[in-house]
Amino acid sequence: MQSYYEEHDRILVALDCIIFGFDRNGLKLLLIKRDFEPEKSNWSLMGGFLKRDESLDEAADRILYTLTGLEDVYLEQLYGFGEVDRDPVERTVSIAYYALINIREHDRELLEKYGARWFPINELPDLIFDHPQMVEAAKSRLRYRASHEPVGFELLPEKFTMPELQILYEAIYETKLDKRNFRRRILSMDVLEKTDEKQKKYSKKGAYFYTFNQEKYRAKINNGDSLVFKPIKL
To answer: What are phi and psi of 109, to 5 degrees?
Structure first.
């Protein structure tokens, strides 16, 4: 069959994934050393190329699983990056995604089996190509999502303390938050369930564990309630 597109340029489509994780020390980014030229042995986001028989989301899932073993995690398409000279080898457009994972559940396998490494979000090494711009765009999207939706809970274990939740929000917004106002704002949304268990690892008194009630959150949204998660700064 005659091709109606023969006169058009062929351009490669890549996918790059910004993988955020969280532990009690703050927000982190998962990076890997590139194992091929150009920029071999330099730090890079997780990436690969789109195959002819797959959608963008399917390719993002495949690449994420191949390079990290991660699946069934929060993964959202972010933005397209298409500067003409962004890749020195071939004209390539990259579709960036970002993922949110709980480090405690995946840390050992990611580091030992896949050779990846976590970096604090404010202590990143030099990254290849336009990956720094991708990271900044992902941070901005995460801040927006966290202020309107409960995506931050994707970064936490099922049970978490209020201090851990505050550390997470401080990391996302890159600012200190007033403890009393933060606690009052979060609890006023009535989507957290307090447990009878305490975490006593970091203080003698301990802090109660909470869980996020997804069903209650969905019911409130369906009822038209406005739940703004953005906390008050100091």
So the answer is: -65, -40
Which fold would CATH assign to domain 12-148? Nucleoside Triphosphate Pyrophosphohydrolase (3.90.79)
- How far is 234 from 50, CA to CA, in rounded Å? 45
The pLDDT score that the predictor gives to residue 232 is 54
Q: Looking at 77-208, list the stretches that DSSP marks H as alpha helix, in order from N- to C-terminal side.
A: 103-113, 131-148, 162-173, 179-188
Domain boundaries defined on the chain: 12-148, 157-222
Architecture of domain 157-222: Orthogonal Bundle (1.10)
What does DSSP assign to residue 230? P
Q: Per-residue pLDDT averaged across 43-57, rounded? A: 96
d(CA 144, CA 173): 10
Alpha carbon of residue 121 to chain centroid: 11
112 vs 165, more confident: 165
Q: What is the pLDDT of residue 230?
A: 63
Tokens of 195: 């447990």
Of 201, 199, 99, nearest to 159 (Cα)? 199
Token pair listed for 9:
């340029």
Helices (H), 26-130: 56-68, 103-113
- pLDDT, average across residues 79-94: 96
Is 39 in a helix, a strand, or coil? coil
Give the integer Cα–Cα distance in Å for 16 and 186.
33
CB-CB contact of 110 with 30 (8 Å): yes
Confidence at 60, pLDDT banded by 50, 70, 90: very high
